[in-house]
Each structure stands twice: as C-alpha cells, then as structure tokens.
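Email to the structure team, subject: Peptide ABC transporter model.

Hi all, the expression group asked for a predicted structure before they design truncation constructs. Nothing fancy, just the tokens so they can compare against earlier work. One-line instruction: predict Peptide ABC transporter, return tokens.
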Amino acid sequence: MSFVAGQKGEATWFGQPRGLTVLFLTNMWEQFSYYGMRALLVYYMKMELLIEQRISSFIYGTYTAFAYFTPIFGGIIADRWLGKRRAVILGGSIMAAGHFMMTFEPLFYVALGTIALGNGFFLPSLPSQINDLYSAEDPRRPWAYNIYYVGINIGGFLAPLVCGTLGEFYGWHYGFGAAGIGMGIGLAIYVFGGRYLPAEDRRVLPEGTAGGGGFDKPTVMLLGALLLAVTVFRSAYEQVGNTVALWADSGVDRVAGAFEIPMTWFQSLNPMLVIMITPFLLAHWRRQALAGTERTPLRKMSLGALIVGAAYVMLAIATVIQGDGRASWLWLVGFFAIFTFGELYILPNGLGVFARLAPQRLGASTVASWFLAIFTGSLAGGLVGSFWSVLPTGLYFLVLAVICAVAALFLRMLDAPARQVFASRFGHEGHTVPVQDTNKEQ
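Reply from the structure team: attached below.
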C-alpha cells in the first residue's frame, strides 16, 4: 500500500518499516473486536435487553466516550512508568476479558467498563509507536497514518460480517465471543512481532519534566483548538454506528432480489470503502506532493468535514423521496461512499498532526489527547443521537450536515496557525516532503 520505497539499507515490507506491518495487524484485530462488539451493541440493547431508543443511544454514546477518555490516563501511565509495549499487552488483555464478559448478560455494564479501561492502555500506546519507526525527515511518515488507518478498517470491515452475522443469526453472545477471540489474535501478533519494533527508552520521566522539551504555547493552542473542532465534527460522525444504524433497520428496504441484507452488514461498507479508496487517495496525494500542490493537513481536514456533511444531505434527500415508505438500500451505499471519502481526509490526518507534533518521549500522552476529541465527540454524539426520536428524519440528517459544516469552517480557520507551527518545527507547512526512492527492497 505504500508508494515510497524504504530508505537505503532498510529492511522493509511493502516499502515500509517491518514494524508498521506488526502495528497494522495488531490494530486490525483489535479493531475487529471493538467494531464487532459495537456493531451489535445498539441492536442488543434494543432487542435483547429491551432498552428504549433514547436511553440506548445515550448508553452507546457514553460507552464510546469513556472508551476514548481512559486513554488520557493510559497514555500518561505508559509514558511515565509502564512503557508503550507493556501498556499495549496489559490493555489488550483487559479488553479481551471485557469482550468475553459481554457473553454473560448480568455482566453487561461491568463488561463495558472493562473494555473501556483496557482501551485506555492499548489505544494511545500502539499508534504512538509509528513515529519511532521513521526519521524526522522520512517522507513516508505522514502517509504511514493513512496506511495504519487501513488496518483499523480491515478489522472494521470483517467485524460486522463475522460478529454481526453470528449475533443476528445464532445469538448475540456468540458475536461478542468472536470479538474476544479477535482481540486475542491481535495480542499474539504484537508479542511475536515485537522484534521488528524499535527499542524503547524505558527511563522514567522525572516529576515536572515534559520530555524532549515539552510543548510550546502555539502548539498547545493549536492542538486545543483542533480538539474542539474535531469534537464538533465527531458529534455528527459518530451517528454512523448509532442513529444511521437505526435508520438502516427502520427506514431502509434491505431486500436485494430474494435476499434480505442483514442490518449489521451495512456497518462493513465504511471500512471496506476505506480499504478500497486509500491506495488511490495516497497516490493522488503523492502526485500533488511531487507537483507542489498538495493541501496542508488542516485544509484536508476541512474538506473532509464538508464531504461528510454532503453525505448526510444525501440521507435527508433519501428520506424526502421515500415518503411514507422505505428508501432503497442503494441510498445507504451511496451515503457510505461519500462519507468514507470525507473521513479519509480528516481523521488519519488529525491523528498524524498530533503524533508529528508530540515532544520526544511523550508520544503516547500526545496521541492520547487526540482521543480526547473522540471522548468529547462521542458524548456530544450521544446527546445529538437522542434527538433522533424527536425530530423528523430528514431534518435530523440536515442538522448533522450543518454540524459538519461548522466543523469545516473551524478547521479552515486553523490552517494559518497550523502552518506557522509546522514551519517553526520542521521548516515546512505540514505538507509531505517528497524525496527520490532510494531502495527497492521489499
């Protein structure tokens, strides 16, 4: 999936450091477990636990929020005491236990809390190791986060097909059990692939130090404003697993010929499209970089938010056309195609900005702060989702589009200060800096 070969003398897989493949596969199976459980969660609460929609949407939003709040503390603990590798192994083990707890109905809330706790150690410590695989001047580093993001989505693509099918046709608890098995596979890959990861500096940070010079004020202000903008965006983005999933059940004609498409299968469209679109998008960005016309990271993110908003406008149009009936499932396919294209412009680039601006030896903590936007955005998403049963469906989707447009405007306003921060840190404005391929070893 890479479009730039390795540096001279470097052993690579697919033109990237071998450690990226280990992180990629570990993350793929972790995301299989997370999205496998998430694909079932709203339906399980509604159909098995008989929780009403407003409350189930709030529980869903609260769970996803706290799953991305615990990384704030997990990242600090990893940087100061545990180290990234131990944090990944500890967090993954706790998460696997939580997924298996989901197979027992009385442990429902305990299981959700356990998964959220394990995610706190695992989530910031895995992607923060990407930076350690590259030198600061390596032009592959910004694109590595898009490649890593494909790993997320391979797991996300397989999860609804495996866990969703097991849950819908054989019993919810079988689907939750499959999610736990996926987490175990990811842990095994990480442990046995550890030799391909760079050596870790295990010295404990003294109290009151920031490691590697810490943050300067412009960087702190930029990252804080970026968190706010992404929070606004994610309050609409998170509806894809919440109210959009409910609409797929109640407002979409899922019959294709003589076959009725399972509702959980639609959750696989987004990750499948990420896998399909990413190589072409990276090639497009590489051509732009070589021509000197590539957008800055914040401009990419702003454009992405607008594209996601356009996808919600499409759903609003579909609800008008459907009238009192059900919309064709093709509308949902079209929605996910536009939605995914926008997502690829905003989310991997946002993660990359945080990782690239992280001070030395504070990588996990800085990446964890990126996940703070997912926490706040998920909380806001739970609140936004509660209006599903109050507003007309078409109006509701238009509200989501407006939220995306507000986020896009905010991100565009942050472009100038972001360019200044990147220029002061790296001598360029955040673009990919192309170099000639120096080694074709795979």
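The chain has a mean pLDDT of 84. The CA atoms of residues 35 and 213 lie 37 Å apart. Ping us if the truncation boundaries need rechecking.
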